[in-house]
Amino acid sequence: MKKLSRLFAAVLSTIMIAAAVVGCSSNVPANTVFSIDDLPGKVIGVQLGTTGDIYASDYEEPEDPSVPKSKVERYKKGSEAVMALKQGKVDCVIIDSEPAKAFVAKNSDLRILEEPFAEEEYAICISKDKAELKDKINAALAELKADGTIDNIIKNYIGDDTKGKYPYESPADVDRSNGTLVMATNAAFEPYEYYEEGKIVGIDVDLAQAIADKLGMELVINDMDFDAIIAAVQSGKADIGVAGMTITESRLKSVDFTEPYTTAKQVIIVRAK
């Protein structure tokens, strides 16, 4: 009897847990964001310190008093904002397009609005007192653009027909006698920087490696919260910040930027239903 009672209790517990899961999913509200025009008055999820955060801030205090104020929920990681969307805690997430594609590919209950939210350019941030290093990096970027290296690095991570076909490899005879180049990044931003088999990989990682190779330096990567990158560069804990960073007026008050190395888009992720 005790064994039967235990079995019955276990079965009952399983049924109750399943019912709770179904109940939770049914409590997630239907999507109400179908275009940029729907953002006023909504709860917007963003990753702290990103351009998505900067753009969303405009909806918190709209210039037109007749426009409803939005609430912005800020998360340390983009994945946390996406989870909040799935749970119904936010109405949408503003984030860069390529990471958005990666999130949606893993979550069939989410989709990206066709209308881009904003277009932008990524560049490498650097301390204002390192003008000489900035000039050297700009020269390296110019060479890497001219010989097609940057295009190949991007194609190696983006594009169904080219993905994985253009891995970057450092020259065998590269000289690394010029010291270290410390890169601050946030390795939760696929395909620009993310973990794969315990190693940080991605477009920005290969780009930084190619630059280090040109400068004759050893690349060192420090993974940190996105909103800590600028402070790390300002304080000298890192030489450069490479993390899909957009040049903005607010950031230029604290750090300098190299020439852009690629273009990108901000998009809006919503629930599929």
C-alpha termini separation: 47 Å
* The CATH topology of the largest domain: D-Maltodextrin-Binding Protein, domain 2
Order of helices and strands: HEHEHEHEEHHEEEEHEHEHEE
Number of helices: 9
Classify the helix fraction into a percent range.
25-40%
Rg on CA atoms, Å = 22 Å
The count of β-strands is: 13
Task: State the CATH class of the largest domain.
Answer: Alpha Beta
Description of the structure:
The longest helix is centred in the first third of the chain and has 25 residues, at 2-26. Strands 1, 2, 3, 4, 5, 6, 10, 11, 12 and 13 form a ten-stranded mixed β-sheet that branches. Helix 6 (149-155) runs antiparallel to helix 7 (203-215). A hairpin with a 2-residue loop joins strand 8 (193-196) and strand 9. This protein is globular. It has nine helices and 13 strands. The termini are far apart. The protein has helices spanning 2-26, 51-60, 78-86, 97-105, 131-146, 149-155, 203-215, 229-235, 249-252, and strands at 43-47, 71-75, 92-96, 110-112, 118-126, 180-185, 188-189, 193-196, 199-201, 218-223, 240-246, 256-257, 262-271. It has 273 residues and is α/β, with parallel strands linked by helices. Residues 1-25 have low confidence and may be disordered. It has two domains: 8-119, Periplasmic binding protein-like II (D-Maltodextrin-Binding Protein, domain 2, 3-Layer(aba) Sandwich); 120-264, D-Maltodextrin-Binding Protein, domain 2, CATH 3.40.190.10. It is 37% helix and 25% strand.
